[in-house]
Design goal:
One of its GO terms (cellular component) is voltage-gated calcium channel complex. Keywords: Membrane, Transmembrane, Transmembrane helix. This is VWFA domain-containing protein. The chain is of the alpha+beta class and 1330 residues long. The chain contains 33 helices and 51 strands.
């Protein structure tokens, strides 16, 4: 009835009916209007909520956000009437802007041309079923793993043979890794470290007399394995005598002193010799009897004990003084013993690190009482056969009589326990301080010497061991001995670990191990680390038309790879395993999960009912159907792998559209297309030129084939030293019409995609030459879902570039039918700040009629200067460029991020455009009012499992048809109007401020942590933020509230750059002349590529007397002589035919006089500096809001660049990845998406909230711009992951996770091309202490 009342109210308000009409006409008019509205909208109340369903095909495409239109919410009654702006209504201005943007998309990107090409092609129904697809994926992976298992068996046989010879020919000459000569190791991209393939080195303490080491014979075996299987990473052998041999030899990068990682592969060793679940309770004494050194040692032992356990082991932890304490949720910790997952290890490690020396003596009995209680409660809830208590203490008693009380408590614990419990003790001692009584006490506990104290025990207790520890060296070797009481029942089969971060090679790997035997005794464990990218390559790069995606789990339900996870090749930290039930997040999915784990193969269909968009991880389409929900079906088809713990799954979301495939077509032999590796191109075939900071060509477009185009993506990725011959074979195969040429490893679908996109190249080249808008356009490009990418003008691209994981591609696919604007971002090619215009192209239809539900065949796009959007905006709304008025115009995207705003291009002040500036920050005075408009915006969230965060973000209703303005209770001295730009993802807003009012909209200036993670109100203003995604340590489940959140569907990757030698770029002529000096007015110069209207002097404040148009490198952001984000020197700009600055010749006499005075000045300066160098202190007056000292604590170590030359005429120096790191001295946007940022589970945040105003913007520092941060070449590979003992930053994933991370948000672009450099605003005062 409420909904009907709203409809009637609207009709009465909008349709003026004469009061003198007869009643019959009243009824007829009412019925007509009602039928008109209900023909397009069907409203139904479900659980008190109004739901909108659309049955008009045109409106389906506009209703992606499941919004109730503002016209139907009776919201206008609270609004100020919309007034025209200089005689024009904002809705008309938005329509004019939409026409211009659509024109750019159709003509410049070639969307209409490409759509016509696809419509002219023939599509056929898909030939393969889901069962055939999943069987192929499983068979390929199974064959690969069996080859690796065969290699592991070969290594094991060699080790066992060497051990048979050991009694007569002991090999005890270890070769420590720290002794490997520095000159013999070189950086290897595949291993991500400096290595030597000539040696096997050992991570070991001093050897015993008969300790077994493999010696050089094992080096030969490992070397042979690597040659036959170059995708293997590390190979190792750990003997039971604690000798750890690794191949290839390396130096662990730990600073100036060579050290090795104590826990490396030790968990795999323990899991292999004891492949069953162990239950352990660790008690750490931190009473007043321990010295600081002893407490430090005790904490280190505890962390090592926990680190050695595997995810299927159970571990409890108790901190003991006069009272007991537990980590995390005390109720959970008291009642059960959780599994030793990565989250548990992290939480426990933080708890141990936080333990402080107590002021009270230790109550030993209390600790054992609680430990036995934990074990008893765990036995009742799970199947446990035995348990181990490890007590780490000094063992000091308040009195000698206390020892009997402790033993009595242990005896009582045994009597109430249903399983045998062993107690091991660790005596922490200081060197040179014998503690006989304490050691005897701890030994009595370990041996459970009840007879000594006349204590009777019905059942004979099993004795444990006592180990004294006086150092933190080789703790892992000691920790393994504590677990020796468990039976070693190794199985003669391969064991696979969960994915983990390789601290040496800086990548995500899986360890595969097998035990080695001598007769029936275990003598060690042999293993190899495999790149996760290699194992999951077919799932990672699974591409299929239609609504189908793939994922992989293990037989315990842990997710190994999923489309919502980032590619392993770009990971920079420890992945957090998640149960597939949480990641899929479909109602009743647990039923499917149980079937997947129990049955070797099968399929099952689940009806999915939701009011949210379908979380299709390949393409988010929204199907709006009646009956109050959105019902559709998902079919899961799975297959278990033999000899390995993995399950491959293919999921298909069923809709009315059948899956189709493009019939094979041929590409003309003569095509304007070359492979993107221009550095290896034949000079006589194409001419090269300099395109800003890139090598390019205008003779043809470039073709790039992403890893998904190849049958073996990982082999393509590791062989980045592609040769000229390989390129020739690829291009010859693509253009071959005889079918006689050998396939160089490409998928057959890739040829079709190349053939279609190549037909667009003539259109791009013509537009480049003839279009009047070419001066604003940087480049044009297109990509297909299978990873084929073409671009003009062409340049070299990163070897592991994947166009389908960029924001411009994902947004175009998710909002098919709309023109998508993404950005601004700093162009990796040197063109300054750009925005991207993209639009999806549908699968071909012979009728040429398409619907938003059609499958996407490609996305066409173009990069334009940020100024070009202002050119279009000023053309549609001239009021936006009028000076002297307190009027601001802005454009924002569907998530509220500003793509055009005066603050993004204002000269000087804010240091240039800022990526990912949100409307809640840039226009905070109206943000609160905007959130109160029903139907305009919805604050939503999703679970990001790749970094364990809950992402909160905004979703604006792009189907808005009305113009919104101030609500009655709004601030009327700040008036605004906002309207959707039809057919795009943009909103046009105009703000008129007649007063200075400061609103409050909290934005975290330290990280992205939300102000209050316990609630989320729709009308509360806050920048997009994130909260930790907590997993219950005891149950391993999310809490009920968080389980209702949808999963973030994908991770968006950042832009990266190619570094060239400056001499190489200087050797090429410019691809085109900038001619910036030809533009004499600001309106003509504004937005032209490579040009900047120079307005301010070098101080950034004083206006120039005669502003002029010049190269961007000379006057970046309108400030003369300022440094660009690329690190260009303003005095030595990029070579160009444009010459705005000309030097004045100086005569020889004047030059001599100047030289004399210069030398004299230098002499005086040096003298004064020498006299006073030790007599001055320097005090910084930089406000804390500029560059925080906490951000400078973790400096990036100087790293050598490791460059490998490529064959042929190769000018590529290195490949540098843009990793945004918040812990380096630079201010980071509080809502900026940053893939180098993550918060481990439970990680704390400094709640650095501040009121963000346009006048007091703590983020926009002119010389501390994050884009000036230049990282070393291999920083992403070498970046240290978060330690188990220290909390680290959280990754800022875009709401629909980069990437890092949700429908993806654009990301910060950092161009690492120069040595490490940080520019910060600093004022230094000299204070003479005399």
């Amino acid at each position: 009835m409420n909904v009907l009342f709203v409809l009637v109210s609207k009709m009465v308000r909008d349709f003026r009916i004469p009061s003198k009409w007869p009643p019959v006409f009243w009824g007829l008019a009412l019925w007509t209007v009602t039928a008109k509205i209900l023909s397009s909208y069907c409203l139904q109340t479900d659980n008190g909520e109004s739901i909108l369903y659309v049955n008009d095909s045109k409106r389906i495409g506009e209703s992606k956000g499941v919004f109730i239109r503002d016209a139907l919410t009776d919201g206008r009654s609270d609004e100020v009437p919309v007034e025209p702006i200089q005689g024009l209504y904002l809705k008309d201005l938005a329509s004019l802007l939409a026409a211009d943007i659509n024109g750019v998309s159709y003509d410049e990107t070639g969307v209409s041309t490409l759509q016509n090409i696809y419509d002219s092609l023939e599509f056929t129904p898909a030939q393969r079923t889901d069962r055939e697809i999943v069987s192929e994926l499983a068979d390929r992976l199974q064959m690969k793993l069996r080859r690796y298992i065969a290699v592991l068996n070969k290594s094991r046989a060699a080790i066992e043979e060497l051990f048979w010879r050991h009694p007569n020919r002991p090999s005890s000459s270890a070769y420590p890794c720290c002794d490997v000569p520095e000159k013999s190791i070189v950086y290897n991209e595949h291993f991500g470290a400096k290595i030597s393939k000539d040696f096997t080195c050992d991570l070991t303490p001093a050897l015993g007399r008969y300790a077994f080491t493999s010696g050089p014979n094992l080096t030969d075996v490992f070397s042979s394995n690597l040659k036959s299987h170059p995708t293997i990473k590390w190979q190792y052998f750990i003997s039971t005598s604690d000798i750890h041999s690794e191949y290839p030899a390396y130096h662990f990068d730990s600073g100036s002193v060579c050290q090795y990682e104590d826990t490396r592969h030790r968990d795999a060793f323990l899991a292999t010799i004891q492949p069953y679940s162990k239950t352990v309770v660790v008690i750490i004494d931190h009473g007043n009897s321990l010295s600081e050194t002893q407490l430090f040692t005790a904490k280190a032992v505890g962390k090592h004990l926990i680190a050695l356990l595997s995810y299927y082991d159970k571990v409890g932890l108790i901190g003991l003084s006069d009272v007991v304490s537990y980590p995390g949720n005390e109720n959970c910790s008291k009642q059960s013993i959780p599994f030793a997952t990565y989250e548990t290890k992290f939480q426990f490690s933080r708890f141990i690190e936080a333990l402080k020396k107590s002021k009270a003596p230790t109550n030993h009995s209390l600790g054992f009482k609680h430990a036995f209680r934990m074990i008893k409660q765990s036995v009742q809830s799970s199947n446990i056969s035995e348990a181990l208590i490890i007590y780490i203490s000094r063992g000091l008693l308040s009195s000698l009589e206390d020892a009997k009380g402790v033993l009595e408590t242990i005896a009582e614990g045994h009597s109430m326990s249903d399983i045998p419990v062993v107690i091991n003790t660790c005596a922490v001692i200081d060197d040179g301080k014998p503690l006989m009584l304490e050691k005897d006490f701890l030994q009595d506990i370990a041996e459970q010497n009840f007879d000594k104290y006349n204590i009777s025990l019905p059942v004979q207790a099993r004795k444990g061991i006592i180990l004294p520890v006086n150092s933190t060296k080789h703790l892992s070797l000691i920790a393994v001995q504590f677990y020796s009481i468990f039976n070693s029942s190794a199985k003669n089969e391969a064991l696979f670990s969960l994915p983990f971060w390789d601290n040496v090679g800086k990548g995500v790997v899986i360890s595969m191990t097998k035990p080695c035997f001598y007769l029936d005794d275990i003598v060690g464990v042999v293993g190899m680390d495999l790149h996760l990218s290699d194992i999951v390559e077919d799932v990672t790069y699974f591409s299929n038309y239609g609504s189908t995606y793939a994922f992989m789990i293990n037989k315990e339900g842990h997710t190994i790879m999923h489309p919502s996870f980032p590619r392993p090749i770009i990971a920079v930290e420890q992945p957090m395993p998640s149960d597939i039930e949480h990641v899929e997040n479909v109602a009743d999915f647990y039923k499917i999960r149980d079937l997947m784990l129990k049955n070797i193969s099968g399929n099952a269909t689940l009806e999915y009912k939701t009011k949210e968009p379908v979380p299709n991880f390949g393409k988010s389409k929204l199907f709006l159907i009646s009956n109050g929900v959105i019902p559709f079906q998902i079919t899961y088809t799975w297959q278990h792998l033999a000899d390995s713990p993995y399950v491959v799954v293919v999921a298909t979301i069923h809709n009315s559209k059948p899956v189709r495939e493009l019939k094979k077509i041929n590409i003309p032999r003569q095509v304007d297309l070359v492979y993107h590796r221009l550095d290896l191109a034949e000079p006589n075939k194409i001419s090269l030129c300099r395109f800003f900071r890139q090598m390019a060509t205008l003779d043809a477009g470039v073709l790039f084939l992403s890893p998904s185009c190849f049958h073996f993506p990982f082999q393509y990725l590791i062989h980045d030293d592609i040769s000229h011959i390989t390129i020739q074979s690829i291009m010859a195969y693509i253009t071959d019409t005889t079918k006689f040429l050998t396939n160089p490893g490409l998928k057959s679908s890739s040829r079709n995609d190349v053939a279609v996109l190549a037909q667009l190249m003539p259109h791009w080249r013509r537009q480049f030459r003839e279009s009047s808008l070419s001066k604003y356009i940087i480049r044009r490009y297109a990509a297909t879902p299978r990873g084929v990418f073409q671009m003009y003008p062409g340049s070299i691209l990163e070897h592991d570039f994947d166009p389908t994981r960029r924001s411009w591609f994902w947004e175009a696919v998710e909002q098919a039918g709309r023109v998508i604007i993404t950005g601004p971002r700093l162009d990796a090619g040197g063109a300054g700040y750009v925005v991207t215009i993209s639009q999806a192209v549908y699968e071909g239809q012979s009728t040429g009629v398409h619907q938003p539900s059609d499958s996407v065949a490609a996305v066409a796009a173009a990069d334009v200067t940020i100024g070009f959007l202002f050119v279009l905006l000023h053309k549609a709304a001239p009021i936006c460029k009028m000076s002297g008025l307190r009027v601001r115009c802005f454009l924002m995207d569907h998530r509220g991020y500003l793509v055009a705003h005066p603050g993004l291009v204002s000269p000087g002040g804010n240091g240039g455009p800022v990526e990912q500036r949100h409307v809640t920050h840039g226009e905070l005075n109206i943000a609160g009012d905007l959130l109160n408009h029903m139907g305009l915006v919805r604050k939503t969230l999703c679970n990001s499992f790749s970094d364990r965060t809950i992402q909160r973000f905004y979703r604006f209703n792009t189907s808005l048809t009305s113009v919104l303005t101030n609500l009655v209770h709004g601030e009327h001295c700040i008036k605004y109007q906002i309207a959707a730009v039809p057919g795009t993802n943009l909103f046009l807003g105009i703000v008129n401020s007649t007063c200075n009012v400061t609103a409050f909209c909290p934005c975290n200036t330290v990280d992205r942590l939300c102000l209050n993670c316990n609630r989320m109100e729709q009308n509360e203003c806050e920048c997009p933020c994130e909260c930790p995604l907590h997993v219950d340590l005891c149950t391993g489940k999310l809490n009920t509230k968080e389980m209702k959140n949808p999963s973030c569907p994908h991770v968006i990757e950042q832009s990266r750059s190619i570094a060239y030698e400056s001499a190489v770029l200087d050797s090429f002529k410019p691809c085109f002349s900038l001619n910036c000096e030809h533009y004499t007015s600001q309106s003509d110069c504004f937005g032209v590529r490579g040009c900047e209207w120079c307005q301010l002097d070098s101080d950034g404040e004083s206006p120039l007397k005669s502003p002029f148009c010049t190269q961007q490198a000379k006057c970046f952001n309108g400030v003369l002589g300022t440094q660009t984000p690329y690190g260009d020197s303003p005095l030595d700009p990029q070579p160009s035919e444009d010459a705005s600055f000309r030097s004045t010749p100086v005569g020889p006499v004047a030059g001599g006089i100047m030289g004399f005075f210069l030398i004299l000045a230098i002499i005086i300066y040096c003298y004064r500096h020498h006299v006073h160098r030790n007599n001055h202190s320097y005090l910084s007056s930089v406000p804390d809001t500029a560059v925080r000292m906490s951000q400078l604590d973790n400096e990036v170590d100087d790293m050598d660049s490791h460059e490998e030359s490529l064959p042929g005429n190769n000018v590529l120096l290195n490949r540098q990845e843009a990793v945004a790191v918040p812990d380096i001295g630079v201010a980071i946007s509080p809502y900026r998406v940053n893939t180098g940022y993550r918060r481990p589970p439970g990680g704390d945040s400094d709640h650095g909230y501040s009121t963000m105003t346009p006048h007091e913007d703590s983020e926009h520092m002119p010389t501390a711009e994050p884009l000036l941060l230049l990282l070393p070449p291999d920083f992403e590979r070498r970046r240290q992951p978060p330690s188990l003992s220290l909390p680290s930053s959280s990754r800022a994933s875009s709401p629909f996770p980069h990437s890092h991370s949700v429908s993806a948000l654009p990301h910060v672009t950092i161009l690492p091309e120069q040595p490490n450099r940080l520019l910060a605003p600093v004022t230094v005062h000299m204070v003479d202490i005399h």
